[in-house]
Amino acid sequence: MSTTTTAAPPPVAKPKPPRRGVFQAEFWRRHGFAFAVLVPSLIVIAIFVYGFIGYSIRVSMSQWQGLLPNLAPRDPLYQTYVDLFNNPRWQADLRNVFVFTFFFLALSVLVGLMLALLVHNALAGAPIFRTIFLFPYSLSFIVTGVVWRWIFTPSAGANLLLQAVGIDPGPKWITDPRVVGDVSTALEAIIPGGDFIQVKLGIPLALLPIVIAASWQLAGFAMATLLAALGTLPDELKEAASLDGAGTWRYHWHIVLPWLRPAIVVILVILGHVSLKSFDLVYAMSGQGPGFATDVPGIFVFEQTFRALRFNLGAAASMIMFLLVAAVIVPYLYRSLVREERS
């Protein structure tokens, strides 16, 4: 009996990994142009954005007061921030900007939503109405402030119409120093060490005309954003709602509003950061106002830096403004990035 033996197959040669030089050459061939375009922009951003932010932090911790720079650190380093938050004017500014932001966002979104629904459901003339409602958004805040300052001056504007119908004297508008709904006393009793609050924590009445002016100008932006979202709403949803017997109110409450929720979030983020760093509209309408009733952090930074020459205090206030704006924008950006990665 004969046995056959099979020869073992020859060993398969493993492919050699590409040399490092070849890999680098291929990488730069593919991405070299992108790097050449992006690197100059990244350098400029690093210097003129993050570099200046770092320099502002350093100035806020220094003793720089006056024309001559003095970057010697304070002892302790955070003393400028302590002085800032113990400043009654800064406390009034924080109160004002939070009150302004709340009412401004609420009124802008509400008016923008109403205008968007009216234009979207208009049978004729929708482009004309869209242009009319969006026109105020094209104006500068200075122009808006000058016009509305005249409207809300007690001796002119709106009060002339009120006098014509027998209401005299009319409201004081931007000259009214009153603050309603003060809760500072209650907070002092609740918060340990709350006695450092030196202003009334309520709603300054002089701030409400500025809310009206700002909402008049930016409600058109909210309308345009919501109109774009309404344009993506499928007609099948409305047909299904009508077949199910849903009326106009239920259709808008249960279908349209949930569909518009992402657009409303975008509006709140964009207009929120605009209101937190507001300056020109308030400065043109009323400035500091009576008893700092309409003062905002932007005006505080401007006057402390360029008029009082207290550069460290102005830099500290600007850093607080930066943190407030970041608190609005960063969570939205993080949520958007997470959503993109999951999808």
Description:
This protein is globular. The chain starts with 19 loop residues before the first helix and ends with a helix. It has a two-stranded antiparallel ribbon. 28% of the residues are buried. The mean pLDDT is 87. The protein has helices at residues 20-60, 79-85, 88-120, 126-134, 141-151, 158-164, 184-190, 208-230, 235-243, 248-276, 280-285, 297-306, 311-342; strands at residues 179-180, 203-204. The protein is an all-alpha fold. Helix content is 65%, strand content 1%. It has one domain (79-342): MetI-like (MetI-like fold, Orthogonal Bundle). The chain is built from 13 helices and 2 strands.
Mean pLDDT, to the nearest integer, reads 87
Going by CATH, the architecture would be: Orthogonal Bundle
CATH hierarchy class name: Mainly Alpha
- In DSSP terms (H or I, runs of 4 or more residues), the helix count works out at 13
- Please state the structural category: mainly alpha
User: How many separate domains make up the residues?
Assistant: 1
Spell out the CATH superfamily. MetI-like
